[in-house]
Write a structure and sequence with these properties.
heterodimer; A: about 130 residues; OB fold (Dihydrolipoamide Acetyltransferase, E2P); about 35% strand; B: about 400 residues; alpha/beta; 5-stranded mixed beta sheet; 11 strands; about 35% helix
C-alpha cells in the first residue's frame, strides 16, 4: 500500500529556530552542534542540552539516516508512518515521518534519505524520509 | 531525611462514573474530594494541604480551593501528566514530615468522553511556546503511535511478541470481571487481543486502555491523625520520582523513568522487588506495563515478555498480581491519566478491601507506579511503596 497524499500541519518558527526553518525552505537540513563538547543535538537549542554551553552552531547534515523505530498509524482517515530516524554520523535521532514507501516493507535499521514534504498553507517544507 | 513512616494514606475514593455528561469538571473534583474525606472519617475543614495537576480547571488549586471552600497552608500543583498523583503522595508526605500540613487532599478528574476527545489517535498540542512543537506536532505523534514505537523497538531488541503483550490485557480482564464499575468486564484471550484491529503497529485495539470520565481522590495524613481514625493504617514507606526525555536527541525507547524512580523508592523503603505482594502498574498500553515491570526490577531488561506470560500477573494464579481493579486496560483511565487509580487499588489491597476474588492474601507490602506524558517522547515517573501497619 502506498501512502496517500497527506498535508502536514505547518511548523511555526520562533526567534530561536528561524534560521533552521529558513534553511529548510532552501531544502537544507541543519543540525545544531556544540563547540564546547562537540556533540550534536536535536531539536535545535541555543544552549547545548548536553553540556550547557552557549557556543553552539548549525551545520548542514547529509540527510541520510536509518530507522530507529517506527509505527504505522492505521486507524485514521489517511494512514501514515511515524518514526525516529538516527542521523548519519551522529548518535541523535529525530522524530519524522517515513513517506513514499510501502508501509509493510519497512524495518528497524533500514537506510533512509531525507525528502522534503509539503506543509499546510505557506508553511516551510518538513524534513521527512523515504527508503534510500 | 526520609519520608518512610512520616505519613499515611487515610482516605481513597474512585468515582463510580465512567461517562459524566451531566457533571461539571469542578463538581467531579469536589465529589471525589468528599468521597475520600468521608472514607477517611474527615471533613473538608480538616484539610490544610491541597494537591492537583493539569487536569484541574482554571488556575488549578486556586480555582478548586475556591470552588470547594478549602482553607490551606500548603499547595502543590506539580504537573507530570498521569504520574502527577503518585508524586503528589510523595510530596504530601514530605510536606507533612516538615510540618507544612497535616491533612493533604489530592484530586484528579476529567471528562474526555463527555467532551468527545480523540484521546489516542489525534496529536495533542500543548501550546505555541512548547519548545518541541514545531519539530514534532506536524508529524502527528499520537499517544498510541508513540507507544507503538516503544513496542516495536522492544520487539526488535529483545524478541518480545504480540502474544506476550496480550497476556497483560488477559490478566487485566480476569480482574475486571469482578469489578461492577469496570468499562470492559468480559474476560479476553490472547487470541482476542492479537486478532483485534491494529491501531498503530504493533498495538491492537485491545492493547490500549479504555477512555473514561471520572476521577479519584486521596487523603494523606500525619501519623497521629492516621492513628486517631478508624481506618487500617496504610504507611508511605518509600517514594521515587524521575523525568525521562529525549536527552537532546539521544533517544532510547527501551526503558522508562521507572529505571530511576523505582530504585529510589526501594532504597527508601528498605525492601526489594521480590518482597512486593501486589503491584499497581500504569497501563495506558500493554507495552507500558511490560517496560515498567522490567525497569522496576521485577525481571531483567528484555525478560518482560516471558515474565508476563501464562497468567503471571493474575491474582491467585501468578507470582505478581497486578491492577486487580482491571486497571486502565479494562476498568478506568479517568482524564487519560492513570496514576490516581493505581494508588487507590493499592490502598484497597493493603486494607483487604479489594474484591474477594482478587484480594491478595496477607497483602502487607505493595508498589504503585505511574508514568505521565509519553514513553515515546518525555514523561514523568512516580513510584510509591506502601505498607500495612
Amino acid at each position: 500500500m502506498m501512502s496517500e497524499k497527506r498535508i502536514m500541519a505547518a511548523p511555526i518558527a520562533d526567534p530561536e529556530t528561524q534560521e533552521f526553518w529558513d534553511a529548510v525552505r532552501d531544502r537544507k537540513f541543519l543540525v545544531r552542534y556544540c563547540n564546547a563538547c562537540s556533540s550534536p543535538h536535536h531539536y535545535p537549542r541555543t544552549i547545548c542540552p548536553h553540556c550547557g554551553s552557549d557556543d553552539t552552531y548549525f551545520k548542514e547534515a547529509s540527510g541520510n539516516g536509518e530507522i530507529y523505530s517506527f509505527s504505522v498509524m492505521r486507524r485514521v482517515p489517511i494512514p501514515y508512518v511515524i518514526a525516529y530516524v538516527t542521523l548519519e554520523g551522529t548518535d541523535i535521532s529525530m522524530m519524522t515521518n517515513i513517506v513514499d514507501c510501502d508501509f509493510d516493507s519497512l524495518s528497524i535499521g533500514q537506510k533512509v534519505k531525507m525528502v522534503f514534504s509539503e506543509s499546510e498553507g505557506d508553511g516551510p517544507p518538513l524534513p521527512t524520509f523515504a527508503p534510500a | 531525611m526520609s519520608i518512610n513512616g512520616k505519613a499515611y494514606i487515610a482516605g481513597a475514593f474512585e468515582h463510580p462514573t465512567r461517562k459524566a455528561i451531566d457533571k461539571s469538571l469542578a463538581q467531579l473534583h469536589a465529589e471525589c474530594a468528599k468521597g475520600a474525606l468521608e472514607d477517611a472519617g474527615l471533613t473538608k475543614d480538616d484539610v490544610d494541604g491541597y494537591f492537583c495537576a493539569g487536569d484541574a480547571p482554571g488556575l488549578g488549586p486556586l480555582s478548586l480551593a475556591d470552588y470547594m471552600g478549602l482553607k490551606l497552608r500548603h499547595i502543590d500543583s506539580t504537573e507530570t501528566g498521569g504520574s502527577s498523583y503518585l508524586i503528589h503522595v510523595a510530596h504530601a508526605a514530605e510536606a507533612i514530615a516538615l510540618g507544612k500540613c497535616k491533612v493533604a487532599l489530592i484530586t484528579l478528574c476529567g471528562r474526555p468522553r463527555a467532551e468527545g476527545m480523540a484521546t489516542g489517535t489525534a496529536p495533542r498540542s500543548y501550546g505555541a511556546g512548547t519548545p518541541d512543537i514545531a519539530f514534532e506536532y506536524p508529524y502527528s505523534p499520537t499517544v498510541v503511535n508513540m507507544y507503538g514505537m516503544c513496542a516495536k523497538r522492544h520487539m526488535h531488541e529483545f524478541g518480545t511478541t504480540s502474544e506476550q503483550l496480550a497476556w497483560i490485557k488477559v490478566a487485566a480482564s480476569h480482574h475486571a470481571q469482578h469489578n461492577p464499575n469496570a468499562m470492559l468486564r468480559d474476560v479476553v484471550t490472547v487470541e482476542d487481543v492479537v486478532n483485534s484491529p491494529m491501531i498503530s503497529d504493533p498495538l491492537h485495539r485491545l492493547d490500549c486502555c479504555v477512555i473514561s470520565d471520572g476521577g479519584g481522590a486521596l487523603v494523606v495524613v500525619a501519623p497521629e491523625i492516621a492513628r486517631s481514625l478508624n481506618r487500617p493504617l496504610v504507611k508511605i514507606k518509600g517514594a521515587g520520582e524521575a523525568l525521562k526525555h529525549q536527552m537532546g536527541g539521544r533517544v532510547d525507547l527501551t526503558y522508562s523513568g521507572a529505571a530511576w524512580s523505582g530504585p529510589t523508592a526501594f532504597e527508601e523503603a528498605g525492601v526489594k522487588p521480590s518482597d512486593i505482594k501486589y503491584a499497581s502498574i500504569y497501563d495506558s498500553f500493554t507495552i507500558t506495563v511490560l517496560m515498567q515491570l522490567e525497569d522496576l526490577g521485577f525481571c531483567a531488561k528484555g525478560e518482560g515478555g516471558k515474565f508476563v506470560s501464562d497468567g503471571n500477573l493474575i491474582s491467585g494464579v501468578g507470582k505478581l498480581p497486578f491492577n486487580t481493579d482491571g486497571g486502565g486496560l479494562c476498568n478506568n483511565h479517568p482524564a487519560n491519566r492513570g496514576g490516581m487509580t493505581k494508588v487507590i487499588e493499592a490502598v484497597r489491597q493493603l486494607r483487604g478491601e479489594a474484591h474477594p476474588a482478587v484480594q491478595v492474601p496477607n497483602c502487607d507490602l505493595v508498589l504503585a507506579h505511574g508514568t505521565g506524558g509519553s514513553l515515546g517522547t518525555r514523561h514523568g515517573s512516580g513510584t510509591l511503596i506502601l505498607e500495612r501497619e
